[in-house]
């Protein structure tokens, strides 16, 4: 297909074909990544800037690595040491960067819609690396890539996502992408973290993990932000873990060799036991590797690629 | 003397909806009749010059009265000031407006009430009536000097912008305000339940990943305030009602005969949460746009009288404040210049809202509730009037607005039906011409 899209803002706006194309493009990217000498000249002379208003280790490093392997110049704005701390607005910061002829801005922001906002006001490409509780499209794409690598075609596959769905941009983007690819998604969590209006996302909702596990091809545990307890959203880690924590023993209920995913960073012993996280069921590090490959594909498509030819 | 001929006069106070002629002299309505002969008019003028306006094809309303505006002066004149707000008002068909107290500083002392009145006099356009705060600094704790404020010219009391969280403070305010005879205007919002939310808690909040504001954050406070009004016998006006649950409670309270009135904002009757997108910050308003069901319940309540009046909740904000990610933009919709045209377009021409009810809810009911001049075109009344042209088409353009801010979801929309002439006390204070860019 001919790639026309300039921004990656959310999964909602991507067609099934576009998702397939991204995942397809990520395959050769992963091969490059696994080479001993991982460097391409493809995007030499192009620049990618990372504008991160929220703490991040894996996403920012993943993007930077992806850009560097493709040969692009990459930069990062650490918001705390920037003019943002002098009160500069997001729009002015972004306009300033665009004026420096950057080719692509990767933004993470605490506010839903921040990436879409920039895409409306700037002429350059924007990738959303997480906006508030709205969307995290690159995470969903890397999760889909990982699932596809392990399960093949996602159509008809049963995927369970468990945890703090309400506050999770990862869950939101994953439900959207997985259902587009034909998977059956079930969201599981306590009623306080999985209110009924989330049915709008298009997945089945359930409050009981154990009844949803049988037949599951993959289970994705979400990070539980511990401060949610102080807000009264759940009574204790102990009870949460008892109801929604993943363990090897609990996973046996699926009756299958079920994959376990986690977007990280993990709270070991809360949403997932160490024993399970360290087991071969867990694809958590694979997710990280695939994250670089998927982001290489995205940067390539947005900045350099108008066709399917790979270096 | 002004002789306004052949206009379709809509005046619920006189049960009038008919082609009429109207005579205005010395700032007051002199006489109204189906027809005046030139002879009669000349004799009534008593030698005074007669100005004739032909109102054929147009409607004449008593000047609209908006009980809910934020004029931002003193303190936030970059958003609006009393003069620009009053100008926007008369352009939009409003001859009287109530200015809320949440300025900087808060209007909680007589000197500030008098300042607002003085600034409005300087502007000389719409009648501007100050609403004074219920509590000092709007901190929800100590009552203001309500008697002094009322004597200074306040027409009601409100901490609008924030709900009064303490039920005891609200109870005491309802009791004490009885001394003034003025209504207490309640902004019904439980801070805990609203909890820093951004849009209505429902499908939109789930879809957009924005924190939700549940309907109960309003209806719980409506229930509380109605109970307190019942117990104290105080006079209560409920601002910007947005959801069905509140409507049901108000309907019950009215059946009991409580001294309560309520208002609804045009945007809650026209839009719902389905209209919201992540970059459309002009839809960000508090209380939030709720569901389509709520919207229908509000319209039904306006039609059956459960909701007494329309009010804009005119809340101007600067371009730079609204040009931010959705969660960071301030709440508020600019309303004075666009609301009548929008309501006409969305509700009157579609047959949902009869013009008689529109006039009653936006002029007569507010005048009665807040004991203001205007509200009707009865002889002897101040000649506050609006001539409305249902055939005038125009596009709402940022550069044409008299308001200092442009935060309206109607920007760049074309409407048919605009107020074309507005009089306050018999003085023509606004006239739309081709030059002003608004007339088609």
Secondary-structure map:
The complex is a heterodimer of chains A (311) and B (440).
Chain A: H1 16-33, E1 47-52, H2 58-69, E2 73-78, H3 90-99, E3 104-109, H4 114-121, E4 125-131, H5 137-151, E5 158-162, H6 169-180, E6 184-188, E7 204-206, H7 209-212, E8 218-221, H8 237-244, H9 248-251, E9 259-261, H10 274-277, H11 284-304
Parallel strand pairs in A: 1-2, 1-3, 3-4, 5-6, 5-8, 6-7, 8-9
Chain B: E1 2-11, E2 16-25, E3 28-33, H1 38-45, E4 51-54, E5 59-62, E6 64-69, H2 82-91, E7 94-99, H3 110-123, E8 127-130, H4 146-152, E9 157-158, H5 167-177, E10 184-186, H6 191-194, E11 199-200, H7 203-208, E12 212-213, H8 216-232, E13 236-238, H9 244-255, E14 260-264, H10 266-270, H11 292-304, E15 309-310, H12 319-322, H13 339-348, H14 355-370, E16 385-395, E17 414-424, E18 427-431
Parallel strand pairs in B: 1-4, 1-5, 6-7, 7-8, 9-10, 10-13, 11-12, 13-14, 14-15
Antiparallel strand pairs in B: 1-2, 2-3, 5-16, 16-17, 17-18
Please describe what this structure looks like.
The complex is a heterodimer of chains A (about 300) and B (about 450). By secondary structure, chain A is α/β, with parallel strands linked by helices. Chain A has helices at about 15-35, 60-70, 90-100, 115-120, 135-150, 170-180, 210, 235-245, 250, 275, 285-305; strands at about 45-50, 75-80, 105-110, 125-130, 160, 185-190, 205, 220, 260. Chain A has 2 domains: about 15-135 and about 290-305, 3-Layer(aba) Sandwich (Rossmann fold), CATH 3.40.50.1370; about 135-285, Aspartate/ornithine carbamoyltransferase (Rossmann fold, 3-Layer(aba) Sandwich), CATH 3.40.50. Chain A contains 11 helices and 9 strands. Chain A has a 5-stranded parallel β-sheet with strand order 7-6-5-8-9, with helices on one face. In chain A, strands 2-1-3-4 form a 4-stranded parallel β-sheet, sandwiched between helices. In chain A, strand 3 (about 105-110), helix 4 and strand 4 (about 125-130) form a beta-alpha-beta unit. The two termini of chain A are about 15 Å apart. Chain B is globular, with a radius of gyration of 21 Å. Chain B has helices at about 40-45, 80-90, 110-125, 145-150, 165-175, 190-195, 205-210, 215-230, 245-255, 265-270, 290-305, 320, 340-350, 355-370, and strands at about 1-10, 15-25, 30-35, 50-55, 60, 65-70, 95-100, 125-130, 155-160, 185, 200, 210-215, 235-240, 260-265, 310, 385-395, 415-425, 425-430. In chain B, helix 2 (about 80-90) crosses helix 3, helix 5 packs across helix 8 (about 215-230) and helix 8 packs parallel to helix 9. Chain B is of the alpha/beta class and about 450 residues long. Chain B is about 30% helix and about 20% strand. In chain B, strand 6 (about 65-70), helix 2 and strand 7 form a beta-alpha-beta unit. Chain B starts with a strand and ends in a 9-residue tail after the last strand. In chain B, strands 1, 2, 3, 4, 5, 16, 17 and 18 form an 8-stranded mixed β-sheet that branches. Chain B has a 5-stranded parallel β-sheet with strand order 9-10-13-14-15. A 3-stranded parallel β-sheet of chain B has the order 6-7-8. The interface between A and B is medium-sized, with 26 and 20 residues.
